[in-house]
Amino acid sequence: MCQALIKIKKAAQKDISALSKLLLALLENKNIQVYQDNVAKFGIPEDYVKNAFAEETLLKAAATGKTTFHIALDGDKIAGFAQVTLQDDYIAELERIIVFPQYVRQGVGTQLLHKAIIDQKQKGTKTLIANAGKDEAHARRFYEKNGFTQISETLIDAPWGKKLTLVTYQLHINR
Q1: Which residues pair with residue 91 across a beta bridge?
Q2: Is the pLDDT of residue 153 over 50?
Q3: pLDDT tens figures, 55-83
Q4: Is 169 within 8 Å of 92 (Cβ atoms)?
Q5: Given Cys at both, which of 109, 134, 140, 168 links 152, Cβ 3.0 to 4.6 Å?
Q6: Of 19, 109, 9, whose CA–CA distance to 58 is shortest?
Q7: How far is CA 9 from CA 16, 74, 120, 161, 168, in A?
Q8: 3-172 CATH
Q9: Which value, to the nearest 10 degrees, does the dihedral of the CA atoms of residues 117, 126, 97, 164 take?
């Protein structure tokens, strides 16, 4: 599972369908780190998560033309993904980067981020925004290590009814 074996590509419809199936299967195991870090920590209801990663939801997001999925492949296995959505002509949001357990700490997240940045530069995006929960130390270090700067910290009402302190980062990619 060496970093050199990982290929990053823009996800096609069949890739997004496979990604949804993998995410939903992974999230059935509530003891794994990806579930603990991305769901349990925030008290997100199971139905909300299942809907967010449902094949129909992901395909609908991609069909808008504003959302791009990049997947990391180890051969034919999905190692992780990044989801980026254009907010306007100049700003895009890195909605999520998820690296699957057996590929963590092997540079896959960084490769996904770099591919997303290249793609957004080609689209003329000037700023990439990313959000992390205040308590998500690993995610926050990842963004800071990759040149993002913190621009705000906001207490929000999450869609599932909890209060959440969100830290927003930005990265200027085209000046």
Answers
A1: 127
A2: yes
A3: 999 999 999 999 999 999 999 999 999 99
A4: no
A5: 168
A6: 19
A7: 12, 11, 14, 35, 26
A8: 3.40.630.30
A9: 160
> According to DSSP H, which parts of the chain are helical?
13-26, 33-38, 46-52, 55-63, 108-122, 137-145
Closest by CA position to 22, among listed 103, 137, 110, 107: 103
Interatomic CA distance for residues 150 and 146, integer angstroms: 12
Mean pLDDT of the chain: 90
The span from the CA of 150 to the CA of 169, in Å, is: 4
Tokens of 39: 């769901």
Q: Name the residue ranges covered by the structural domains of the chain.
A: 3-172
CB 108 within 8 Å of CB 35? no
pTM, 2 dp: 0.90
